[in-house]
# Entry
Amino acid sequence: MCSKTDDTDQIIVQRFKKDYTEQFYILVRMHLSFLLDLNTEENDSVPEKGRIKKWNLVPFSKKSKLRSVIEGAPLTQEGINQIFQLIEFLKQEDNIKSEGIFRRTGSIERQQELKYLLNQGSFLDLGSGTYSVHDCASVLKGFFQDLPDPLLTEVHFPVYCQIAELYDINISALQESKLLEALQLLLLLLPSENKLLLKDLLELLHVTASFESHNRMSPDNLAKLFTPHLLCPRNLTPAILLKVSQSLFSIVSFMIMKYKEVFKIPSKLILDFKAKYEKKRILSPVRHLNESTADVASTVFTFVDRECTTKENQSNPTETALAQLYAHIQSLPESSKKRKLVKQFNKENGHGTPLQTVKNSKNRSIGDSIKKHIFHKHLARKKGFLMKDSPCGTSEETMMTPRSRKPVLLLSGTNINALPKMEHPNRFMDNVTEEKERIDSPSSCFQVSLPFKSKSEGDIQRNKIEVPKINKSDTEAILTDTFREYLSNRDMITFYSPQDSSFSSRTDDFNSTDLGNLTDGQFSDSLMYCLNGNNPEELNVIEEEQEEKKLVLKPKKFDENGKPIMFETSF
Amino acid sequence: MASRKKTLLKVIILGDSSVGKTSLMNQYVNRKFSNQYKATIGADFLTKELTVDDRTVTMQIWDTAGQERFQSLGVAFYRGADCCVLVFDVTAPNTFKSLDSWRDEFLIQASPREPENFPFVLLGNKVDLEPRAISAKRAQQWCQSKNNIPYFETSAKEGLNVEQAFLAIAKNALAQQNSTVDLYNEFPDQIKLTNTQKTSNNGDSCAC
# Structure
């Protein structure tokens, strides 16, 4: 019935749900929110028992009834077992072919008798013919009707309404696949008893519909009968119930037709689950997927992988993902929800989001906001800071990225966090003029290991003298930039890209750890040669004159590859 | 003396599922019978103009779903009805047995001023089908016990007796309208503070 991959998918889901219950719900809901415009706060309560329990407060009319296994009581395993007898009986081919099965009423007296027996928890001899097919079908239907919380749960009801609004299976295959995925995810969020029973019921209805030529019950027909029972909250007013039933029955009909598919797991979700396990496996190399992955053991292996961290910092996936998320929020239609999201976003990022984008959140398109952003930047420059316009400066702006607290960042000139630091370039400029006459030494480049503020004039001079074609904006930029430029001119570093130029813009974040990474991952051996105190030959001439003032970097510590990771500095 | 002159007659069709309510209405209004087997969601109505005793009236026929869950729709749709049509399937005894509960349900929910005099009409449908489970005699006996409700045996499929039945329905509704008392209270929704009897509001309106 199920292919092998489906089985493994199911196993993974079961395992994941067991191992990371919370993350399971978060992930499923996240995937669901990709498909739907969900109000996450409202949906947060989905797996919580508390809310479901609230609806177990049966209305007064039902409360007076005898407490029993199946009638009006919340779903229990016992009740399901009893109900399963009916399902099995109805599934028999002779029975399922009965015209109008589930639609016709049958004898009310016999149904009450049957209900009574089911409530007693007794085994039913349905084959004896005491009860007709319609009696059993009606009792089964009545069972779903009497559930205080509909089988598909009341908390999911608004989601189903939204699905019905968004997706029309008649429009396109794409819509159909999205509808299917949304339903698959929703069913994953169901309590397991509900899910099991739903599976049985949908299968029964599917088989029923397959005998349409005999029983005249099409999936639509069956859906019309079951929609109010399975989906609709019990407290709907008649008028709303009518409206809702009309719009929702196509979903139930779809579920009947695709009863196998709706219980499959969306491939994207499986990927995420697998990724999670994969990650776990890397962190705890001893253990494998099939073994228990208890959290305790893995902590032993927790360490910082320099190689990985460097790589991570290079491509900066977090940053990119955040930028994408931010762009997505920006492109949302204007609404209070969007404002809320932006606010939340800012909060999570320590208010690192450029202030103006919040103000200008009315700008619908990302393009607009980028323009605005750049425009503001220009304004800011003209106003307060002696900075020269540079194409390089704007190229750094390409991403409207919210700034995380990570040290490596793309920086925007108007970024409020960065504004105070703008004085540095100013000071540079002064320094440049003051010390024009000075001849600098290439080795002063090694100041990179010092805090940014301390010394920079040497590099600026170097730029002026040796790399005149470099845009002046580079002088306003950062030390390492210049440094890199210089190095790349000597073919020491082969890569150079705008992204890299913005690499260490936030100088105060540029700490020794980063330097270590930098040295480790990015610098060529020839550079290391330089760093080890040997000067490039061609610079020797200028160097001599600066000998006394020169900053000397001596490697202090070496990593396993023999590369220095710490330096001793001296003048 | 008619206290309310209106030419619109509201007629409600009630009965178990699959007795042929929708088919009867379609046969009468559109003169069509569809072999489709479609459940009705909630309720729907069709209108038909007809002449009764040289008077043109518009009949608004409300077709309701036989499904249990939709019975709570009653309050919304029963009120203001001028006549109630009860339908059963002559080949299905159960549909005949539930007539009582349909009638009671209607009277409770529509709450006409004089329940015992409210015009009902009984239709035994599907007389074209064999075997018959409910004889005409049995149906008529039931009608007599309910203050002489008119009874018609119809076949929506063959259009048998449908026209006559609905004409009788219209006449009954008109007669009721022309009688001296209003069918319903002036302010049917008035709240009686002393009224302890709960208007079977199906208990679902509880605020929790």
Q: What stands out?
A: Residues 84 and 149 of chain B are 11 Å apart (CA to CA). Confidence is low (pLDDT under 50) at residues 197-205 of chain B. The longest strand of chain B covers residues 43-52. Residues 6-177 of chain B form a domain with the Rossmann fold fold (CATH 3.40.50.300).
